[in-house]
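so ive been stuck on this for like two days lol. basically i have the seq below and the ligand is S-adenosylmethionine, smiles is in there too. i just want the complex predicted, nothing fancy, no docking runs or whatever. if the output looks off dont worry ill sanity check it later, just need somthing to start from for the group meeting slides
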Amino acid sequence: MRLNRVEYTMMNNPLRASIQRRFEARRLLRMGGPLGGGAALEIGCGRGVGTQLIFEVFGANRVDAFDLDPRMAEQARRRVARYGDRARIWVGDATAIAAPDASYDAVFDFGIIHHIPRWRDALAEVRRVLKPGGRFYAEEILSDFIHNPVVRRLLDHPLEDRFDAATFSAALAEHGLTPLESSAFGGWVAWVVAAKAATAG
Ligand SMILES: C[S@@+](CC[C@H](N)C(=O)[O-])C[C@H]1O[C@@H](n2cnc3c(N)ncnc32)[C@H](O)[C@@H]1O
């Protein structure tokens, strides 16, 4: 689902970009390591700061990215124009990713799956588009945060069937994405790097 006005503002400012660059990307890099080239996908790219970091911090050679919200996709397109045809942005849905099977060495999720009512469908899609041995780098927002009374007044999230860190890791494993590293900040945020099995299947 799209962001409400408050969350849209929270996601589109220099402070958010700085947190993503200084803490989130570095944490995921420590957990999952760099890509050293290769093709990556970012789901729910927002205004494209993550897409830029996948080039700059993770060392991808090519990055595709999409967002459900056309305003976000347009901002991302402008942000990564400097990468020419190494970056491709579109409007799309993480539960039906417009890419062939086994396209990417890595898929990145900077806090979008908790916005998806049928979030397990997105995990199945992530697995489908990853190459065998590919990695999924995820930062996710957990149910305690979503159900916090103050957060509920300010932000719009799907409320049914949200997940804690253990449920998210278990769902990854059920969808063929084996968690390699994980950490969490209380019941609010989890970071997981998971891998698709190296042999096809
Ligand atoms: C909390 S924001 C995070 C944006 C960006 N990843 C960041 O870290 O700044 C969640 C983003 O997910 C997008 N989104 C929500 N549901 C989606 C879906 N089903 N498919 C793709 N993007 C989605 C929203 O439009 C929004 O841009």
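The two ends are 31 Å apart (CA to CA). The domain at 5-196 is CATH 3.40.50.150 (Rossmann fold).
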